[in-house]
């Protein structure tokens, strides 16, 4: 009988508020903040401080360990896009919490996502140096733009989505015309990688941030209307002469530079929604907020700057009485002052955080008392929001209780598995392991190990400082701190009788402790304390301690790579376990006391017999150090975790690997298993705590081995012969355009399914033809259709197979079809075009196949009648669809006009226009008052100067 095992699967992941790999962004309502949480996207309700929704990919979609690397929200829509480490992009419906579609096009991690204003186009940049344009509504890639020599870092749409500006680590900006799909302008001048770009909402200015000490600004030239370029920035006569001489393709023109306050490189530059503020986040702890002045204010500031220069000159007029200077001054008086970048952008505030800032995002909604609300994600798993005012910056909220600030160093389950305790560098948290909610947060030292006291009312934490902290679980307070060791407490294990515990420390001591109750002097309450009853001194640092379940032996792993075993009652030496080449980092004993398993920094697990100290088996278990190992209670099954991010399930009797559980994104430090063995919990350097549940699904060892071999084969598919011998430093063609999609396992399987459907349908058509001949000759029996076709006709069966292919994968799927099958597919398009719902699909198939096989189709005479027939039919069908769409659009416009006439919408527009007119009038009055004041100042200054000359 073949032995079967029960499978463990990922069930929950909690403790991560915001991971560092991706940016944060607000949704369109401004109520929710979208933050990356490793492979998920958390939707945080900022006012309530809770995670209202989690957008997580299904476990079937290419493995769970693909981190989110970029997030973007669609303007005025519940849709959001998330880019992942494998280059895939997922479109989510934020209200439903469901994944609408998955787009595959990049070979490297997605670094940036940007939507156009309407949300119909999505541009994505990646580490593979490419930019892909996606049709969000059609869920298909339009084209790929190639030209950058390094990772694309940021993107920005111009002219309502007609142009795209891209920034890269290759120090260049590129302007792409999306209609012609070509690069129209390349901008140099940066001395280091360009990390971020942004355009203000009115598209007057584009700002770039790099590792240089300044921010660079460019003015944007818009589309040509009536022979003149429409640009919203004011131009002088000299500028207009220059612009007439410049190239008509030049979209961005240098405007100036502003010196930054910080010396760190720029990480992000972003305008707020109204465009009156610009935030510059550096790769440090600060964000510089700049005020963006409007045209009237910037001109006024330029005038003041010029007048101040004149005043300085006039003060020196007595010393410099040369005629040339006087002429120059007269010329200056007549000229219009030129607006420079310092007249438009003025440093307003500097936001300083306690830790390094990973990402920033402006809220689309502005409160009455502030200029803007800015959200920050910090690299210590924290989200903060700041209110920016003209005179100050105040922190309004922080989301911090739902996760640790640093690594999770130990996890411990209570005896009934209803509570979970985790420790970190400055706090202890109590969790509900079934829901993942944080119940208590207690400030503490750097906890390296922990355990629940029997009864689960108290817990003991061993710290790096050598203290034992006794925690009251119900009240969430630290009751007492006992100075236990002079070195860090590395291990803490309960004694089998439940009356105490044993600690091991780097001060070479193993100490035995017993529980006691004490009454506090100022209160009548009784609380738990501990007292040291015995000591066992070792020759080296104690890294881990284990006690046999029968209380007979105690084992201590030392820094000298050995494990010493002693009798528990007399503390006499019993055995030494030799064999590891590096120190033993973890150890556990089976419930029956027969086996000891040790995990070491040499990446090996060793299984020992406790009776003679012989090594039963040494297993090369992990690709890096083994950090924790635990037996499942009352079995010889065990779990090990390591720095290679994996959790592995073993059979210690057969010395076989049963399962490999993937999910963590960094080193896994600790593991704890429930008493019934129905779930386990792991803690990691990525600050996540993950629960893995045992399912009722059985599996067999041989099947798992075959599955692992298949996965290795599929992983090697990308590194196939056609890719293996390509030059590694292949430079892209200048401004080249390519197909948006990429070959994946899904596209290959889709091609196979279409070829199989064509073969089955071809056989069925032959059988139908033979049956018709037999019926004519009078020999025909009843025709029995092929059961595989599920009652469909041959044409419908192939259409069903083609329709199953994802829209984005259609081009790559058809690319893998041989010419003979492509011809068969073309012959079915006539029948399919009769269905109005399939006209778009038929046109796409026809277009792709014609582009791919044009030369062969032209050379093959037998295909000409088919192509001529398709031309006539498809043109007619497309015209019908176009007319229907036009009719429906006209009807919707008419309904919209009827609804507008019944509502007060026109009056709203009139009100807004009236408010705009009044604000413009007030600005004019202010400008006149300023000019009058300046005239008076000049008159007084002239009178003084005249008096000075006469004297």
UniProtKB/TrEMBL annotation:
This is Small-subunit processome Utp12 domain-containing protein. Keywords: Nucleus, Repeat, WD repeat. SUPFAM superfamilies: Quinoprotein alcohol dehydrogenase-like. It comes from the Eukaryota. PANTHER family: WD REPEAT CONTAINING PROTEIN 3 WDR3, WD REPEAT-CONTAINING PROTEIN 3. It comes from Centaurea solstitialis. Residues 795-897 form the Small-subunit processome Utp12 domain. Residues 300-331, 915-951 are annotated as: Disordered. GO terms for biological process: maturation of SSU-rRNA.
């Amino acid at each position: 009988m073949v032995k079967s095992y029960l499978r463990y699967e990922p069930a929950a992941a909690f403790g991560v508020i915001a991971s560092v790999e991706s940016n944060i962004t607000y949704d369109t309502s401004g109520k929710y903040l979208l933050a990356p949480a490793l492979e998920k996207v958390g939707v945080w309700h900022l006012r309530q401080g809770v995670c209202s929704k989690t957008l997580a990919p299904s476990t079937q979609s290419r493995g769970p360990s693909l981190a989110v690397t970029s997030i973007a929200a669609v303007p005025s829509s519940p849709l959001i896009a998330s880019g992942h480490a494998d280059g895939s992009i997922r479109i989510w419906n934020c209200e439903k919490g469901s994944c609408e579609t998955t787009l595959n096009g990049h070979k490297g991690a997605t670094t940036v996502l940007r939507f156009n204003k309407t949300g119909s186009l999505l541009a994505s940049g990646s580490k593979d140096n490419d930019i892909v344009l996606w049709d969000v509504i059609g869920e298909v890639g339009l084209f790929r733009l190639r030209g950058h020599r390094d990772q694309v870092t940021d993107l920005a749409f111009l002219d309502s989505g007609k142009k795209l500006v891209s920034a890269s680590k290759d120090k260049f900006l590129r302007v792409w015309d999306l209609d012609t799909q070509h690069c129209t302008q390349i901008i140099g001048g940066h001395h280091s990688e360009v990390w971020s770009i942004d355009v203000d909402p009115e598209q007057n200015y584009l700002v770039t941030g790099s590792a240089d000490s300044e921010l660079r600004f460019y003015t944007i030239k818009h589309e040509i209307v009536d022979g003149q370029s429409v640009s919203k920035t004011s131009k002088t006569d000299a500028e207009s002469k220059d612009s007439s001489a410049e190239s008509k393709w030049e979209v961005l023109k240098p405007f100036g530079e502003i010196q930054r306050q910080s010396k760190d490189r720029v990480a992000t530059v972003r305008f707020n929604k109204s465009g009156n503020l610009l935030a510059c986040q550096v790769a440090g702890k600060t964000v510089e907020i700049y005020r963006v002045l409007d045209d009237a204010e910037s001109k006024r500031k330029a005038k003041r700057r010029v007048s101040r220069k004149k005043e300085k000159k006039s003060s020196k007029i007595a010393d410099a009485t040369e005629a040339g200077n006087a002429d120059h001054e007269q010329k200056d008086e007549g000229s219009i002052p030129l607006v420079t970048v310092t007249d438009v952008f003025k440093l307003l505030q500097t936001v300083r955080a306690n830790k390094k800032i990973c990402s920033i995002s402006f809220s689309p909604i502005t409160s009455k008392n502030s200029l803007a609300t800015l959200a920050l994600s910090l690299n210590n798993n924290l989200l903060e929001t700041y209110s920016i005012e003209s005179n100050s910056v105040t922190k309004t909220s922080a989301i911090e209780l739902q996760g640790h600030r640093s690594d999770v160093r130990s996890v411990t389950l209570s005896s009934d598995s209803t509570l979970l305790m985790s420790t970190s560098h400055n706090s202890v948290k109590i969790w509900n392991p079934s829901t993942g909610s944080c119940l208590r947060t207690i400030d503490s030292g750097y906890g390296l190990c922990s355990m629940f006291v029997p009864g689960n009312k108290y817990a003991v934490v061993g710290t790096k400082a050598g203290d034992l902290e006794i925690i009251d679980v119900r009240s969430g307070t630290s009751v007492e701190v006992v100075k236990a060791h002079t070195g860090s407490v590395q291990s803490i294990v309960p004694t089998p009788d439940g009356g105490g515990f044993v600690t091991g420390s780097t001060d070479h001591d193993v100490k035995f402790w017993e529980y006691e109750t004490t009454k506090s002097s100022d209160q009548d309450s009784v609380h738990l304390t501990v007292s040291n009853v015995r000591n066992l001194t070792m020759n080296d640092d104690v890294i881990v301690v284990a006690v046999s379940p029968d209380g007979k032996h105690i084992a201590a792993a030392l820094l000298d790579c050995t494990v010493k075993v002693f009798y528990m009652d007399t503390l006499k030496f019993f055995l030494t376990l030799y064999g590891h080449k590096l120190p033993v980092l973890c150890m556990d004993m089976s419930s029956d006391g027969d086996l000891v398993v040790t995990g070491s920094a040499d990446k090996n697990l060793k299984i020992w017999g406790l009776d003679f100290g012989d090594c039963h088996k040494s297993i090369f278990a992990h690709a890096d150090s083994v950090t924790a190992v635990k037996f499942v209670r009352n079995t010889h099954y065990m779990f090990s975790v390591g720095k290679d991010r994996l959790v592995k399930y073993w059979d210690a009797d057969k010395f076989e690997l049963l399962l490999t559980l993937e999910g963590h994104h960094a080193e896994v430090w600790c593991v704890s298993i429930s008493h019934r063995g129905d779930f386990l919990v792991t803690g990691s350097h990525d600050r996540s705590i993950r629960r893995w549940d045992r399912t009722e699904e059985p599996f067999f060892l041989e099947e798992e081995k075959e599955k692992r071999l298949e996965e290795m084969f599929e992983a090697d598919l990308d590194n196939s012969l056609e890719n293996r011998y390509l030059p590694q430093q292949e430079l892209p063609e200048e401004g080249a355009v390519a197909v948006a999609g990429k070959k994946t396992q899904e596209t290959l399987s889709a091609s196979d399914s279409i070829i199989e459907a064509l073969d089955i349908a071809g056989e069925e058509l032959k059988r139908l033809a033979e049956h018709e001949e037999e019926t004519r000759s009078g020999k025909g029996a009843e025709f029995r259709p092929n059961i595989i076709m599920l009652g469909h006709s041959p044409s419908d069966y192939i259409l069903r197979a083609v329709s199953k292919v994802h829209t984005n994968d259609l081009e790559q799927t058809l690319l893998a079809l041989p010419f003979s099958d492509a011809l068969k597919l073309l012959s079915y398009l006539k029948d399919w075009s009769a269905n109005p719902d399939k006209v778009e699909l038929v046109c796409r198939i026809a277009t792709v196949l014609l582009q791919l096989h044009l030369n062969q189709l032209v050379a093959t005479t037998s295909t000409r009648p088919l192509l001529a027939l398709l031309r006539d039919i498809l043109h007619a069908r497309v015209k019908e669809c176009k007319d229907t769409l036009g009719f429906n659009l006209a009807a919707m416009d008419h309904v919209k006009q009827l609804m507008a006439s019944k509502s007060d919408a026109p009056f709203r527009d009139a009100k807004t226009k009236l408010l705009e007119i009044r604000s413009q009038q007030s600005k004019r009055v202010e400008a006149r008052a300023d000019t009058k004041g300046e005239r008076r100042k000049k008159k007084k200054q002239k009178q003084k100067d005249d008096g000075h000359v006469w004297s």
